[in-house]
């Protein structure tokens, strides 16, 4: 006979821990948007569940950002007074425990008699307070309110870091756009002009390719795109370069269809291809190979040329942001990949003098906060 195993869901303490972590995970995405009225409003219900109080309020110097709990006339009475209750803690940064004399609204049916006001702090500055309303105050409630406020502080700081990262990424993109080779733009237009009389239809097609390339490369807004869109723009770039170099430039593409929807930072492939064309054709002719492979949880992208190669020390300087290299945006691309995914996802460059160059990087197929811009 087989004994039927009894399902074990853990001790009451295990269940309580799971419930707390689950509730916190529900509030976290909203708080990571920053402490706006909309984000605070969405998070407040989960924060009240964490504390188990009759109501909570989140206030900053402008007033009440969010309220959750009892409604009707009780809410209007206490919500009106919340800003005044929050003011001392906003100034001092110290938790306040308030009794019925400060909090009660005079309605004997109202369940709110006390409140705990705890500071929400980022970068050693009080930016808001969490007010927990109850019918009585205990040491456990005071401690719980302080801990929840401290956790909210951490989430708000992460939101600020995300904003800083976005601003840094936008600055890097502006710098990269300024770096897109002026020689390429001049030579592309010169190549188009050369076909105006001999092959007007070809000139028209190339002009449209150049317009689409410029529109993509110089677009405003959005840190991310799909690999499919990035490769489509690389194709435009190569069409323009092949119009200039003809049979001297040979291109090979091997792209796994599975990785085309993967979201990547904007303009990370084209600068690598531009470098490959520039260095691959130094001897007058060359081949470029672009590959995108499916690596289960990651996409692996590589750009390789059979050109003159380079001294590894020169590449090392380019990756560290040195200005002595003529590699377009190599350090910029490496820095942005590391900013988004961590140091394990920077560029890997294999090169030597007279041995060509291969640049490879990996992209996680799924990464929190990484979404393609429309």
UniProtKB/TrEMBL annotation:
The reply to whether Kinase figures as a keyword in the UniProt entry is yes
Gene3D superfamilies in the record: Histidine kinase-like ATPase, C-terminal domain
| A GO molecular-function descriptor | phosphorelay sensor kinase activity
Q: Which Pfam families match?
A: GAF, HATPase_c, His_kinase
Keywords of this entry: Kinase, Transferase
Q: Which organism is it from?
A: Kribbella jejuensis
InterPro entries the UniProt entry points to: Bact_2-comp_sensor_kinase (IPR050640), GAF (IPR003018), HATPase_C_sf (IPR036890), HATPase_dom (IPR003594), Sig_transdc_His_kin_internal (IPR010559)
Return the protein name.
Two-component system LytT family sensor kinase
GO cellular component terms given for this protein: membrane
Which parts of the sequence belong to the Histidine kinase/HSP90-like ATPase domain?
A: 260-367
Organism classification: Bacteria, Bacillati, Actinomycetota, Actinomycetes, Propionibacteriales
């Amino acid at each position: 006979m087989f004994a039927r195993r009894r399902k074990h869901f853990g001790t009451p303490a295990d269940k309580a821990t799971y419930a707390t972590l689950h509730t916190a995970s529900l509030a976290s995405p909203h708080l990571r948007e920053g402490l706006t009225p909309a984000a605070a409003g969405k998070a407040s219900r989960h924060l009240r569940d964490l504390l188990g109080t009759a109501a909570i309020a989140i206030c900053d110097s402008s007033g009440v950002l969010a309220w959750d709990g009892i409604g009707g006339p009780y809410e209007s009475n206490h919500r009106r007074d919340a800003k005044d209750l929050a003011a001392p803690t906003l100034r001092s940064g110290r938790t306040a425990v308030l009794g019925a004399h400060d909090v009660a609204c005079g309605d004997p049916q109202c369940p709110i008699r006390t409140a705990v006001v705890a500071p929400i702090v980022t970068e050693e500055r009080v930016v808001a307070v969490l007010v927990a309303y109850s019918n009585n105050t205990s040491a456990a409630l005071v401690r719980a309110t302080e801990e929840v406020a401290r956790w909210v502080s951490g989430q708000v700081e992460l939101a600020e870091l995300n904003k800083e990262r976005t601003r840094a990424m936008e600055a890097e993109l502006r710098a990269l756009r300024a770096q897109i080779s002026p020689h390429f733009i001049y030579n592309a237009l010169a190549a188009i002009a050369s076909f105006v009389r001999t092959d007007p239809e070809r000139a028209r097609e190339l002009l449209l390719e150049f317009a689409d390339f410029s529109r993509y490369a110089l677009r405003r807004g959005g840190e991310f795109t799909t690999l499919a869109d990035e490769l489509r723009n690389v194709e435009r770039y190569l069409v323009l370069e092949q119009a200039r170099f003809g049979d001297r430039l040979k291109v090979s593409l091997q792209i796994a269809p599975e990785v085309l929807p993967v979201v990547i930072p904007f303009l990370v492939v084209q600068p690598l291809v531009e470098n490959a064309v520039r260095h691959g054709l130094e001897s007058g002719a060359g081949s470029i190979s672009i590959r995108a492979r499916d690596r289960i949880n990651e996409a692996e992208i590589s750009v390789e040329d059979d050109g003159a190669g380079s001294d590894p020390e020169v590449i090392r300087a380019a990756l560290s942001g040195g200005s002595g290299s003529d590699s377009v945006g190599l350090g910029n691309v490496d820095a942005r990949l590391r900013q988004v995914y961590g140091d394990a996802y920077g560029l890997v460059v294999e090169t030597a003098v007279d041995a060509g160059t291969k640049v490879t990087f990996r992209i996680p197929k799924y990464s929190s906060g990484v979404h393609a811009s429309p």
